[in-house]
Amino acid sequence: MKKQIAVFASGNGSNAENLITYFNNSKIAQVGLVLTNNPDAGVIQRAKRLNVPVCVFSKKELQNSTKVEEALKSHQIDWIVLAGFLLLFPQKIIQSFPNKIINIHPALLPKYGGKGMYGMRVHKTVAENKETETGITIHFVNENYDEGKIIFQSKTDVKRNDTPEDIAAKIHQLEYKWFPKVIEEQIKIEGFQ
């Protein structure tokens, strides 16, 4: 029986779509639910087009109700993946999924992490600081932004004349290549324990 993955996203959803497509061809897991706190998020249309159920919730519902937990339970979710999800993840869900919540961050943590550091904000800061490399960090989620145990990092060069948009394009390529593979590897590891 395939493990069920829930993907949380707040925005466009290109990583979520990549994960759905990748796991459609997997023997061990599939994306069974997409959740978002943004009723206008692009990820909603992407998920619907790919026939994946969607749950939309408010920040208040995430923190103070059981709506999200009930959605996870009703879809028999085994793993949670954050793909551009901007809210702090609630402790009650982290405790229910120990070492089964994975996030991707568009920088080499611990650099450029924490509250407010996401998307183009990260890439602009990397460019402004004249970094010579950046990359992605895939990590487990804990109660603090971007502080969970690191699972995997991949680097890319930053050229002197790279714009934040150039950096974003390089990061997206790393995300699309590595995120699904690292998730799949973690699910396999868990299966052997």
TrEMBL record:
SUPFAM superfamilies: Formyltransferase (SSF53328). N(1)-(5-phospho-beta-D-ribosyl)glycinamide binds at G13, S14, N15. It is an enzyme of class 2 (transferase). CDD domains: FMT_core_GART (cd08645). GO terms for cellular component: cytosol. Gene3D superfamilies: Formyl transferase, N-terminal domain. Belongs to the GART family. Its EC number is 2.1.2.2. (6R)-10-formyltetrahydrofolate binds at K60, N103. This is Phosphoribosylglycinamide formyltransferase.
